[in-house]
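User: Second chain of the day. Same drill as before.
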Amino acid sequence: MRLRWALCGLVVSISLLLTACKALEPPTAAPTPTPVPTVSHPAPPVPKDRDLARLVAALTQVDTCAMLDAAKAQAPGFTAADKLRRTSAHTCRITNARGDWVRIELATGSNRMSRFDLAIDTIGGAKVYRDRPNTDTCAVDVPIAFEYSISIYSHIVGASPAALCRPVDAFAKFAVPMLARPAPAKTPLAGWSGCALLSVIRGKPISAFQIGGYPTNNIDGCTEMDVGELVSEVSLSYGGELDPANFERITPIGGHPTGVDSPGDKCRLTWLAGPSGQTGAADKFVELIVMAKTCAQAEQLAAKTKTALAGPIPKGAAPLFPIYLRPNEPDSEQPGACADVDRFVVDSNVEQRCRPYVPVAAPPQGATEVLRAVQADGNVACALSLGAVRKHLGAEFRPVTIGGHGCRYVEPAHGLEVAVLVTNRAIAKHRESKPVKVGKYGGWTDATELSLERYLVNLHVDRPEQVSLHVSFDFRPRRGTNHLGTALQKELVPLAAAIVNKYF
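Assistant: Same format as last time:
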C-alpha cells in the first residue's frame, strides 16, 4: 500500500513538474482557423394565431348547459334528471345523485407547454387533448387558439381506470360538434364577455387584453396588463349574497353594497347586479367584480362597468366558426416540426431559433469537409443523418435545427428526441462510459437516468482529424402515458455507424 502511494506521489510530482516547465516555454501563436462562411436560409412562415375579437364574439354565443344534455350525450352515470348549474353566463356543471360532476368552461388558459405531454386525439372534426391528472379526474382540452382552450372535465369518485373517462368522453363527443355553429344562450349577461366589457370601458380593442380574471379564468373574465403589471380586471359571474367573512369590509359604493378586499397591492370590488335566473342560493345573483391598482381606480372602473352593462351590447366582430381548431391547424407559434421540440427548451430561449429542416445537399465525404459544411449550415447535419434516422427509427421522426447547432429529430408522440452533432470540441467521457465499435471506428457510450421520466443515451465517435460525431437518444414517456419506453435504444449504434461509414 505504501509503495502504491509513493508511486502515485511520484507520478503527480512529475506531472506538476512538466506542467511548470511547459508554462516557462514561450507561448506559440495559435493557428488562425480558416473562416467558414455561414449559409443562411429564409425564415420559415410563422403560424398565425386566431383573431381574438372574432373568437370572443363566437364564444359568447355558446350555451354550455345545452352541451351538457345527459340524455342526448348518453353519458354513463348521468341522466336527464341530474342538476345543471350555471356559475356564470358561459360556464355550466352537471352533477348526478352520487355527487359526480362534469363541467364546461370556455377559453381557459392553455398553451403548447401545458398540452405537450397530453394525448392528442380528434373528436367531431376538432383537435383535442386528453388528460387524466389524478385518479378521480378526466379532461378533454379543445384548443381554440395558441393560449386558450375549451375545457370539458369530470370528477368521478370510485370509478375503475377503464371507466373513469367515459362520462367526459360522451359529453365531449356530443358537445364538440355544437361548436361548429352554436345556438346562443339566453341567460343574463350571455351576450357579454369579460373582454368585450373591458374593451368598452377602456376604449381599446379586445386584442389588447387577456381572457380570464378572478374568479372566472375564462371567457367571463378579462385582464389588462402593462409590462407584466395588472392595470384593470373585470369578471362577470353568478353568486350568492355577499358574505362579510369574504371581504375586509362591505360598504355602499355607487348605490350598491360592495365588498372590498385588497389582494396583494391591488383593490378589488364585488357587488350584486340583479337576479341571475338561477335557483340555487350560491348562483342566485349576477355578481360583478373589478380590480385595479387603487380603490379610487377600482371605483371608477365599477362605475363605468355599470354604465356599460346598462346600455346595449356592442356589435362585435364577425364570429369565428368553427370555434375549434381542425387537426391540421397549428395551435402554437412554432413552425412545422418545431411544435414537437422538447417544451423545456423554452427555458433557455433557444426554442425561438428552432427552424424546420431546409433540404440541402449532403456534404462531401471526409470528416474535415463534413465539419466545415455543418459549421456553415446546421441543415447539413440533418442531410447527412436523415436517411439513417428514417431507416432505423421511422418516417415519423422529423428534423429541425436549433440555433444552427446540429440537427434534432422529433416525433408527434414525444417519446424520443434524437440529436446529431458534428463538432471539433472535445467531449469528456464519464466514468461509466463504455467503449463501443461504431462501423469502421471506435467510440464510447454512456447512459444517464436523469429522472423517472427521462433517460438519456449518448454515443460519441472520435476521428483522428479532431472531428467528432455525437448522437444522443433522449427518451421520455410518450404523451398521454407514464411509460418510458427505451426499445429503440438498440438502434443507436447502427444509426451512428450508417452515418460515419458513409460520410466520415
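The radius of gyration is 30 Å.

User: Great, on to the next one.
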